[in-house]
Amino acid sequence: MCSQFWSLACVLYEMCCMKQAFTGSNFLSIVLKIVEGDTPSLPVRYSRELNTIMKSMLNKNPSLRPSAIEILKIPYIDKQLQHLMCRYSEMTLEDKNLNYQKEAAHIVNAMQKKIHLQTLQALSEVQKMTPRERMRLRKLQEADEKAQKLKKIVEQKYEENNKRMQELRSQNFQQLSMDVLHNMGGRENIRILAQLR
């Protein structure tokens, strides 16, 4: 449960700052920042109480992180929950729908900005690479594209072969049925001829 609150604090930080709480060039550097680095703080435009709550949830010692009950008992959180409950209980259904649409549009805009920033950041990282690193990256991307194309071709061929096998089984079954019927008819003819003699 403690790791879930740590993750929730990371999400809270990312929502407030539009960037990740811990970043690095690779997995190991991120882990080192989490374990040995300073706990990030929210910008000053957010309340000191919210920042304190987030920092307590990001505590490096899991046993010192607050529980769900403890978080809900914090006066700041309780006040915010009461405010939300009053706000939404007074709204009409139309108001709620309009508000949801505005909030959704705001979230979409924020995500588009974030994706754009991530693209620019990735482009910046590529530009910092040496020509050899860029060539290696290009080759990896080409290999990924080829692998995707090959996977698609294999899937198509597999489907075609399955379909062909089903058609052949169907044809063989029909031929076998005809042979059986023909053979049964031949036996019947022999029996009738034997009776006539």
Question: Could you explain the architecture of this structure?
Answer:
This is non-specific serine/threonine protein kinase. One of its GO terms (molecular function) is protein serine/threonine kinase activity. It catalyses: L-threonyl-[protein] + ATP = O-phospho-L-threonyl-[protein] + ADP + H(+); L-seryl-[protein] + ATP = O-phospho-L-seryl-[protein] + ADP + H(+). Keywords: ATP-binding, Coiled coil, Kinase, Nucleotide-binding, Serine/threonine-protein kinase, Transferase. The chain is mainly alpha-helical. The chain has a domain of 92 residues: Orthogonal Bundle (Transferase(Phosphotransferase), domain 1). The protein is 81% helix and 0% strand. The model has no long low-confidence stretch (mean pLDDT 78).
Q: What sequence of helices (H) and strands (E) makes up the elements? A: HHHHHHH
Q: Please estimate the helix content.
A: over 70%
Broad shape: extended
The CATH class assignment of the domain at 1-92 is: Mainly Alpha
**Any idea what the CATH superfamily of the domain at 1-92 is called?**
Transferase(Phosphotransferase) domain 1
CATH fold name of the domain at 1-92, please?
Transferase(Phosphotransferase), domain 1
Give the helix tally: 7
Amino- and carboxy-terminal Cα gap: 93 Å
Total strand count, please?
Answer: 0
The largest pleated sheet is described as: none
Low-confidence stretches: none
Radius of gyration: 34 Å
How much of the sequence is in beta strands? under 5%
Oligomer: single chain
From the 3D coordinates, which CATH architecture of the domain at 1-92 would you assign? Orthogonal Bundle
Look at the structure and give the mean pLDDT. Answer: 78
What structural class do helix, strand and pairing data support? mainly alpha
Domain Protein kinase: 1-77
EC number: 2.7.11.1
Keywords: ATP-binding, Coiled coil, Kinase, Nucleotide-binding, Serine/threonine-protein kinase, Transferase
Protein name: non-specific serine/threonine protein kinase
